[in-house]
Amino acid sequence: MLSNYKKKTALLLSGLLVMSVGLAACGSNDAKDEAGAASVAPSTQAATATPQASASAAATQAPAEKTMKDALGNDVKIPANPQRIIASYLEDHLVALGIKPVAQWTVANGTQAYLQDSLNGIPTIPYDLPFEAVTSFNPDLLIVGGNSVVAGDKYAQYAKIAPTYTLGDEINGDWRKALLKIGEVLNKSEAAQKALDGYDLKAKEAKAKIQQAAGAKSAAAIWLVQKNFFVVSDTLSSGAVIYKDLGFTVPDAVKEISAAGKANWNPISMEKLAQLNADYIFLINSDKEAGSEALKDPVWQAIPAVKNGQVFEFDRNGSWLYSGVIANQKMIDDVLKSIVK
């Protein structure tokens, strides 16, 4: 892969991922840390500077402990250079900033598989962050997403373990804001902005290629898990990518379900599936090993995209169930490979 939207999505993901078989749930896509960009060859004037002046300049540029107010109004002392960060379900942002956490989010059946090129070998921590598990990693900074993660006395308990910064529901529900805020917390604002700019450019170029290859087409992202279908919201998660960033038309059935639902992924009945007039379907199939029996249903078979052979299937290890600069770039790559021949 909290705001009310993302909180429910995380619960939906964790519950459905646990009951789906072995589901694991955002190289060239990773934004590079720009902290060293100023390390250019010294000028003649700099070369003749005294050792004392050089030491003073270095001290001025070195990161220092700072206090930031989080979304809940807590004054949080952020370490100068945290080395043991836990930011569960926010790992996409960390990886985009070139940071490896000391532990990574997991549910019973797996981690965020799409990030494992960068996080392979990083120990896991349960998604609900038990206090004992957090303590065992001796973190020097906790970054949490939505308000519910630290509800009640949880914040005080976490704050006893390590400085705890809460993004809050509003920021956590917008991956762009979350990336920029985490960049600010970790003194990597330049790297965060560069990652965001790189994504926007990639999305713009991809949209142009899709428009040229296919014209104005409608699409839907459908998740099949335990014989049940879910459709992505038209404004959240991969829905924001295919509709807002890539310009696909939103089918009426998706609009209706998105308006009534609160999660990133909402159940879609067979009745609504029968009304899904989509030119393309991006199918995340978590039932593949179980035979994908639901895909044999006549209702599914009657959907225009299915009849026309315009269903593009991805397995449970992809990034479609998540959100972030890395997850979204991988989705764009998937769409381009599917649509642009």
In DSSP terms, counting alpha (H) and pi (I) runs of 4 or more, how many helices? 16
Whole-angstrom Rg: 22 Å
> Oligomeric form of this entry?
single chain
- Strand content range: 5-15%
* Adjacency order of strands in the biggest sheet: 10-9-8-11-12
Question: Which whole number gives the mean pLDDT?
Answer: 86
Give the overall form: globular
- Helix and strand sequence: HHHEEEHEHEHEHEHHHEEHHEHEHHEH
Helical fraction equals 40-55%
Biggest sheet layout: 5 strands, mixed
Q: How many angstroms does the end-to-end distance come to?
A: 28 Å
Q: Uncertain runs with pLDDT below 50, 5 residues or more? A: 1-60
How many beta strands in the DSSP annotation?
A: 12
Structural class computed from helices and strand pairing:
alpha/beta
Description:
There is one protein chain. The protein is built from 16 helices and twelve strands. With 341 residues, it is of the alpha/beta class. The strands form four sheets. Strands 10-9-8-11-12 form a five-stranded mixed sheet. A three-stranded parallel sheet has the order 3-6-7, with helices on one face. The longest helix is centred in the middle third of the chain and has 26 residues, at 189-214. It starts with a helix and ends with a helix. Residues 1-60 have low confidence and may be disordered.
Q: Tags for this entry?
A:
single chain, about 350 residues, alpha/beta, 5-stranded mixed beta sheet, 3-stranded parallel beta sheet, 16 helices, disordered N terminus
Concise overview:
By secondary structure, the chain is an alpha/beta fold. It has helices spanning 4-19, 44-47, 51-61, 91-96, 116-119, 131-136, 154-161, 169-172, 175-185, 189-214, 237-245, 252-260, 270-273, 298-301, 304-307, 325-339; strands at 66-69, 75-78, 85-86, 104-106, 124-126, 141-144, 164-166, 219-225, 228-232, 265-267, 280-285, 311-315.
